[in-house]
Amino acid sequence: MTPTRRISLPHLHNLRDLGGYQAAEARVTSWRRLFRSDCPARATSTEWATLRDLGITTLVDLRSSAECLDKPVDVPDAMAYCHCPLLGERAGDGGANAASRAYMRSMSLDYAEMMERSLDGAAHALSVILGVLRDGGGVDFFCTAGKDRTGMIAASILYLCGVGDDDIVADYCLTEVYNANVVARQVDAMPEEVKRRLPPGRLELASASRPQTMRDFLAWAHGHDLASLFEAHGFNRTEQDDLRQLLTNMAS
């Protein structure tokens, strides 16, 4: 029986498996190895048990330190937790509104600009994910809403595995369906002063996962040879090949 892509839990609205996509060289991405989600800070013991049953052994948190302090994740002893902030931490990035500022900053950059600013962080996150896969574990990586930072890492991994652009775009667009209500609530709860600093139209994009957004990122990735950029920032070709082999199987 083919596994289910979306795993719907009461406090995880955007949890899904990245298996089942056609990849390069007649391969397909493996089920139950790599997951993406929104933040599991409110997960119950029953939900944590579900994650364990899915084979998840390690959580990779792409949020800022301020966001982690604002909404800590109480990871069970049976799981490992790795903090891999994707966007660079900034000196003095604290205070009551720091988490909201960090979250909104993640939505205020187009993905090419975000990747250019965070290649070191992205390469590190990929190295951590690869290490878990080499040890036979499963990974769930996440940010706050599981859309922008998570979407960019998911797209990068699928890109390195040779998944076609249409499937990468389709995976990205699922977030708008799964997560629109919770993102809207998060935006509503943000201080007005934070919202006022955003460029016009950014709030409207908060829950949107528009196809052109990901197509623009993929055009940039192809044009700039994202694999070479990762190699230059510490995630070398051997590691990229290992990631591809560990995350794909020959199609039946």
Overall domain count: 1
Structural class: alpha/beta
CATH superfamily: Protein tyrosine phosphatase superfamily
Radius of gyration: 17 Å
Q: Mean pLDDT, as a whole number?
A: 89
Biggest beta sheet attributes: 5 strands, mixed
Beta-strand percentage? 5-15%
Poorly predicted runs are none
Briefly note the CATH topology name.
Answer: Protein-Tyrosine Phosphatase, Chain A
- Helix content class: 40-55%
Tally of separate helices? 11
Count of extended strands: 7
The CATH class, by name, is: Alpha Beta
Task: List the helices and strands in order.
Answer: EEEHEHEHHHEHHHHHHE
Would you identify the CATH architecture? Answer: Alpha-Beta Complex
Taking the alpha carbons of the first and last residues, their distance comes to: 14 Å
List the helices and strands and how they pair.
Layout (H helix, E strand, L loop, with lengths): L15 E2 L9 E3 L4 E4 L7 H9 L2 E6 L3 H6 L9 E4 L14 H10 L3 H7 L1 H16 L3 E5 L6 H12 L4 H24 L3 H5 L14 H14 L1 H7 L4 H11 E3 L2
Parallel strand pairs: 3-6, 4-5, 4-6
Antiparallel strand pairs: 1-3, 2-7
Helix pairs in contact: 5-11, 6-7, 6-9, 7-9, 9-10
Tell me what the structure shows:
By secondary structure, the chain is an alpha/beta fold. The chain is 48% helix and 11% strand. Strands 1-3-6-4-5 form a five-stranded mixed beta sheet. A two-stranded antiparallel sheet has the order 2-7. The longest helix is centred in the last third of the chain and has 24 residues, at 165-188. The protein is globular and about 50 Å long. 39% of the residues are buried. The model has no long low-confidence stretch (mean pLDDT 89).
